[in-house]
Amino acid sequence: MTAQKKKFGIMGGTFDPIHIGHLVIAEQVRDRFNLDKVIFIPSGNPPHKSRKKVTEARHRFQMTLLATISNPYFEVSSIEVDREGLTYTVDTIKKLKEEYNNEAEFYFITGADAILDLATWKSTDELLELCKFVAATRPGFKLSKMEKEIADLEKKYSKKIYTILVPALKVSSTDIRHRLNENKSVKYLLEEPVESYIIKNKLYNNSNKE
Ligand code: ATP
Ligand code: MG
Predict the structure, then answer these.
(1) Interhelix angle for 57-68 vs 192-200, to 10°?
(2) Nearest to residue 27, comparing CAs of 185, 174, 164?
(3) Contact 190/17 with Cβ under 8 angstroms?
(4) Is residue 3 a contact partner of residue 184, using CB atoms and an 8 Å limit?
(5) What is the pTM of this model?
(6) Which domain holds residue 19?
(7) Which residues of the chain have pLDDT under 70?
(8) Measured between alpha carbons, how far is 95 from 101 in angstroms, rounded to an integer?
(9) Which atom of ligand 1 lies closest to the CA of 110?
């Protein structure tokens, strides 16, 4: 008798910081696809030459741990944080597959904005072979446009891409960083322990952050 493959969600992101928008899409996809767990993967430190200012990976990793601790289905992987420089999703998924001896099926979870970029990711073809993609609706990204773009991607790569309608949360890390920088409240936009961590470590209060 062959055991049924486990189904794991992969939630990649910069998580700078992690907020309720991330948590809601991960939980909705877990529920809808009956996933055994969702693995959150914060991105690593960007290469030095990269122009964009991103908070140190160790802080983003800690915040991701704090935000997900109350959900028994959520876990956090340091697979990208442990690697210096740019990491590509395709390489991360390959490594994860190896780690699980190819005994698990992966569902890569993205928001509407991320799925629209999929064709620009490294080895999109291979990536779509390695895991299923689930795109969640996101305020600011019209459902009709998203559906059209997804249909185009499905045609181009001959692969199914799933869409899920989630409760709309007009929250972004960029907006939260701006609010913190202006000493505005971010209560309820992120998990309380994450807010405490931000205050304790004095993150996002220097005005040169994007
Ligand atoms: P930033 O403003 O810094 O880009 P972000 O809020 O977009 O941050 P990311 O870490 O870039 O967060 O996103 C990780 C993943 O979560 C992406 O696939 C993104 O589309 C998705 N996502 C983030 N916020 C939402 C939201 N409010 N609704 C749906 N999907 C979201
Ligand atoms: Mg983003």
Answers:
(1) 150
(2) 164
(3) yes
(4) no
(5) 0.95
(6) 6-168
(7) 1-2, 49-51, 207-210
(8) 10
(9) 18
CB 34 within 8 A of CB 130: no
CATH number, position 98: 3.40.50.620
Q: Which amino acid is located at 191 in the chain? A: E
Q: Give the integer Cα–Cα distance in Å for 163 and 112.
A: 9
Q: How many CB atoms lie within 10 A of CB 99?
A: 12
Report residue 108 as tokens.
Answer: 């890569």
| pLDDT of amino acid 168 | 96
Give the closest residue (by CA) to ligand 1 atom 30. Answer: 111
Q: Is residue 180 domain-resident?
A: no
- The DSSP code for 3 is P
Q: What total number of domains does the chain contain? A: 1
To test the ligand 1 pocket, which listed residue (172, 188, 189) has its Cβ within 8 A of the most ligand atoms?
Answer: 172
**What's residue 2's pLDDT?**
62
Rounded CA separation 123/94 (Å): 12
Evaluate whether residue 15 is within a structural domain.
Answer: yes
Does residue 173 lie within any of the structural domains?
Answer: no
132-136 and 74-76 strand pairing: unpaired
Report which ligand 1 atom has the smallest distance to the Cα of 113.
20
Asked if residue 205 belongs to a domain, the reply is no
The pLDDT score that the predictor gives to residue 93 is 96
